[in-house]
Amino acid sequence: MPLCYNKFGDSMKEKVKTLKYTIIVVVMFFIGIMIGIAISTIKNSKEETKIPAVKNFISKEEVKQIALEDAKRDFKKEVSLDTDIYVELEKENGMDVYEVTFYLGGVYYEYKITPLDGKIIDKDMELLTNQNSGTNTSDNANSLNKGKVVVLKDNSLKENEVTFTKQKQELDNGKTVFEFQFFTQSKEYEYKVDVATLKILEKEVELKNKVVSGNKSITQEEAKAIALKDAKLTEQEVIMKKIELENELNYKVYEVDFYKDNQEYDYEIDVASGTILKFSWKLR
Fold first, then answer.
1. H-type helices in the chain, by residue range?
2. Could you tell me how far CA 111 lies from the centroid of its own chain?
3. Based on C-alpha coordinates, what's the Rg of the chain?
4. What is the value of pTM for the model shown?
5. All residues at 6 or more sequence positions from 30 whose CB lies less than 8 Å from its CB, including other chains
6. Mean pLDDT per 10-residue section of the chain, whose length is 284 residues
7. For 75, phi and psi rounded to 5 degrees?
8. Which helix (H) or strand (E) holds 228?
């Protein structure tokens, strides 16, 4: 009896042991399945939070070609790239845009192009100059020089009397314009000129040194008369917007603003001397 009992007991122990291993294997199997499901769920969740790739965006290579073909139209002969073409996808006012920059024929170009249809929405072009000769390195300089002649003539100035700090071509509200900034010993100038017509669209002239001498105190009527005389207009020809006395740091000015047709005039006139400190004009 004891021998049979021992054999029976050993047999039961083996069965229990086998059952334990089986249970452990099954539990581990189900744990593995649950871990796999959890990992898959987390991965899918992360992928869902990613910004989906926009498959209908034009490629960077297409963008490069669009910008390069447009830039080459500025030249009368074949020119080569001075650098690689750099393209970056950026956000601007919540909108995706490609920014494209490169140097071509000695000219710096910066484009903004929509990634969906390849439309050029902005073009900034800066002509590099040869400081030794004073001449531009591009055929397109001929057009720029015509614009320079216009702004210099508007002030009865010669090129050797001024120093240019900016001379470039850009898009301004859909219109291609030349933008110029230059100064003399006494004044600073800013201009925008229509590239197609060479018509002045905006200009601003400001005294570099605002310290002026004077011991009188002009009236509003005198300030208005000074501004109208400078604009070569009569009071009957304009619509007066405002004449206001303003306090600057060390002096007082009259701000005189008026319109004539689609033209807007703004003046700052020193109260103590009647000197025009700043003048701007633009087409509305």
1. 2-49, 60-72, 141-154, 220-231
2. 10
3. 37
4. 0.56
5. none
6. 53 65 69 71 54 69 94 85 85 89 84 93 73 46 84 94 85 86 92 94 90 80 97 96 88 94 96 94 90
7. -115, 150
8. helix 220-231
